[in-house]
Specification:
heterodimer; A: six-stranded antiparallel beta sheet; 4 helices; B: alpha+beta; Gyrase A, domain 2; six-stranded mixed beta sheet
Chain lengths: 123, 376
């Protein structure tokens, strides 16, 4: 069973057991516009919740991505290196950024449910 | 992803503001105006459409200034490094407003009109009031300086521009590049200038505020034209190697180091009789300390404004002043200044978030200009 949580900075994390997949929301990808470059974290590195973990660059500007959960990165989406525009095309599935072993599932309480996130962006 | 808007600065709307909203524009404050950064198709698509066919941009934020009075050209030659006598009536020249240290107050287009007592300027939005103050300080009171807020300005840019505009105003066909003229359309007058800031052929159209929406809609009836915003305008001018005031040029820089010496008339340089003339002539003779150049970083990471530039031995040699992604080339591009003695280096290193990215130095522009040339 997969749960999905959101941050106020428009990242999502899909949680399955101790594993999480992280990406940005459709709203974020629309706001950013055409994405031209993604700087992903190194496999094996660990990040704390809320710390900057990746950078997404649109034509206009560079935006930091903050990790929705603490833990160790075990996979990154290498297809984004050549085709960063996948995030614009499919931000919730094919445009995922990295996978993480979640260190402390209690932290997920700091995140928003889908309903709360929808309220935040006003839909 | 938050946008900071300083509440103390009043931001104005152009006459096309409601029109932009109706066309799903993403609006941002720029140079004191609310303007579209892009419409629903996005910056890359708007950029590519401009290079392929043609786009309309709202550039009404720019200052359109008319200066009137007898012997106005003689008076302005004491300020600007250009020679009106060498220009045919109706010709436009790119130039800069300089201070006494030869530093750039603004860059602008100046029109020698068909009326010898009148000169037309198009200046940057954020600079228009300081430009007018500088002109007032340096011009005799008998000259009338008039900021034409009654006129909007739209730019039609791209290889199909002539055909599209000629469908409405056939007389514009064959107009010389960098020339302007008044035309009557319906029951009003519009000033059409064959120029722009995208590297493409195109026109800038000064049109009464009350007529601009209808005229823009009329142009858009042609299927080859789409709307484009500031985002595409910026990536187009960067590919064309054109300086943006406040970024590549500013009050700290002179036109020689900015690679703009082509815009300074040689006879004026010899006489040194314009504001900042002595400093500029001196800089021209001994060569600038730094040079504005183009950089092609390896890989896909854009090196944006403020990125520091190093040589192979890790010595700091310069800084990027504009950088981003080139939709036409599909790679990141940057321009910036490096110390002149390093201009012939094969490779430099751009510090992007702590990583030193190798980059080739290239002569600007990144994408060749495609300006209109009259067939001989």
């Amino acid at each position: 069973m997969t749960d999905i949580f959101y941050t106020k900075d428009h990242e999502w994390i899909k949680v399955n057991g101790d594993e999480g997949v992280v990406g940005i929301t459709s709203y974020a990808s629309e706001q950013l516009g055409d994405i031209v470059f993604v700087e992903l974290p190194e496999k094996g590195n660990s990040f704390d919740q809320g710390k900057d973990v990746a950078v997404i660059e649109s034509v206009k500007a560079a935006s930091e991505i903050y990790s929705p959960a603490s833990g160790e990165i075990y996979e990154t989406n290498s297809s984004l290196e050549e085709k960063p525009e996948i995030i614009n095309e499919d931000p919730l599935e094919k445009g995922w950024l990295y996978k993480i072993i979640i260190k402390n599932k209690d932290e997920l309480k700091n995140l928003m449910s889908e309903e709360e996130y929808k309220k935040l962006i006003g839909v | 992803m938050s946008e900071l808007i300083n509440e103390n600065i009043s931001i104005e709307k152009t006459s096309l503001f409601d029109f932009h909203n109706k066309n799903n524009a993403k609006i941002v404050p720029f140079g004191g105006y609310y303007l579209p950064i892009n419409y629903s198709s996005g910056i890359i698509s708007e950029h590519n459409h401009t290079r392929l066919k043609a786009s309309v941009f709202d550039v009404s934020h720019m200052g359109q200034i008319e200066i009137n009075g007898p012997f106005v050209m003689e008076a302005l030659e004491k300020i600007f490094p250009i020679s009106f006598s060498k220009l045919a009536p109706g010709k436009i020249k790119y130039t800069q407003l300089l201070n006494h240290e030869g530093k750039i107050i603004d860059d602008l287009m100046i029109h020698k009109t068909r009326d010898e007592n009148s000169v037309w300027l198009v200046v940057n939005a954020a600079c228009k009031h300081k430009d007018i103050n500088h002109l007032r300080e340096n011009l005799n009171k008998k000259f009338n300086i008039n900021l034409r807020n009654d006129l909007s300005l739209i730019a039609l840019q791209g290889p199909k521009s002539e055909k599209i505009l000629a469908d409405l105003i056939p007389e514009i066909k064959g107009m010389e590049f960098m020339s302007s003229s008044w035309f009557r359309y319906k029951n009003y007058e519009i000033l059409i200038s064959r120029c722009g800031y995208t590297g493409e052929d195109g026109f800038e159209i000064s049109i009464p505020n009350k007529n601009v929406v209808t005229f823009t809609e009329k142009i858009l009836k042609n299927n080859d034209v789409k709307l484009a915003g500031l985002g595409a305008r910026d990536s187009l001018r960067l590919e064309a190697g054109l300086c943006l005031y406040g970024h590549d040029i500013d009050i700290e820089k002179n036109p020689i180091e900015a690679g703009l010496k082509w815009s300074i008339c040689k006879d004026r340089l010899d006489k040194q009789d314009f504001i900042g003339g002595q400093v500029i002539a001196d800089e021209y003779k001994k060569g600038p300390q730094k040079n504005l150049l183009g950089f092609l970083p390896k890989g896909r990471a854009p090196a944006r404004e403020g990125t520091l530039i190093y040589d192979a031995s890790n010595k700091l040699i310069g800084e990027v002043t504009s950088g981003g992604f080139s939709p036409s080339l599909g790679v990141p591009i940057s321009m910036g200044y490096i110390i002149s003695s390093f201009s012939n280096e094969k490779e430099v290193f751009l510090d992007v978030r702590g990583k030193k990215i190798p980059a080739d130095i290239i002569k600007l522009p990144f994408v060749p200009h495609n300006y209109f040339k009259r067939k001989k």
